[in-house]
């Protein structure tokens, strides 16, 4: 379903349609969708947990964690999936796709910082030749960039006289 199409969203106001189709809202929608996809991949990946752990390079860490309790690697993966889902829901809220969530702007800033930190944290992996970590860092940079753009451009547009109701991202203040 295309949420930016004015034909599909006939029951919404024109300002809501403008908010969802704006560049900042689109960036947050992309970031939110990516997070929800990552959350789903974590949850579905539990079917093949040890193969997934091996593929992403954390099998040994998870085996050590399993020594303290066989369910811990699975629980940690579910908690991680939950965190990605919350990240995604906050992005969709900032984009105006979902209702406004508590502390929206603050949480979106924290998520942005987490992603951009994760992207820079793995710079050493480039020299190590760890392709998986380089790919994860690149994904973190792209998703963090979506959040950063959505926050920065949404705020800039709302302060140039376009009105706080035109961009849901601007409603966070």
Structure characterization notes:
The protein is mainly alpha-helical and 173 residues long. The chain has one domain (14-172). The protein is 72% helix and 0% strand. The chain is built from eight helices and no strands. Helix 2 packs antiparallel against helix 5 (72-95) and helix 2 packs antiparallel against helix 8 (131-158). The model is unreliable at 1-19 and 156-167 (pLDDT under 50).
What percent strand?
under 5%
Number of domains: 1
- Give a short account of the largest sheet: none
Distance, first to last CA: 30 Å
Radius of gyration: 18 Å
Shape: globular
Number of helices: 8
Q: Residue share in helices?
A: over 70%
Order of helices and strands: HHHHHHHH
pLDDT below 50 for ≥5 consecutive residues: which ranges? 1-19, 156-167
Quaternary: single chain
Total number of beta strands: 0
Mean pLDDT: 81
Q: What class, by secondary structure content?
A: mainly alpha
């Amino acid at each position: 379903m295309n949420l930016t199409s004015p034909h599909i969203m006939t029951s919404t106001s024109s300002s809501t349609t403008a908010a969802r189709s704006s560049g900042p809202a689109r960036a947050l929608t992309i970031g939110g969708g990516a997070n929800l996809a990552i959350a789903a991949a974590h949850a579905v990946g539990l079917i093949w947990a040890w193969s997934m752990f091996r593929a992403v390079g954390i099998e040994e860490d998870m085996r050590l964690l399993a020594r303290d309790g066989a369910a811990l690697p699975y629980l940690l993966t579910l908690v991680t999936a939950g965190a990605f889902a919350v990240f995604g829901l906050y992005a969709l809220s900032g984009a105006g796709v979902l209702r406004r969530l508590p502390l929206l702007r603050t949480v979106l800033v924290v998520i942005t910082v987490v992603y951009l930190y994760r992207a820079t944290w793995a710079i050493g992996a480039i020299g190590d030749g760890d392709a998986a970590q380089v790919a994860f860092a690149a994904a973190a940079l792209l998703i963090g960039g979506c959040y950063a753009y959505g926050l920065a451009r949404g705020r800039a547009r709302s302060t140039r006289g376009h009105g706080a109701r035109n961009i849901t991202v601007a409603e966070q203040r």
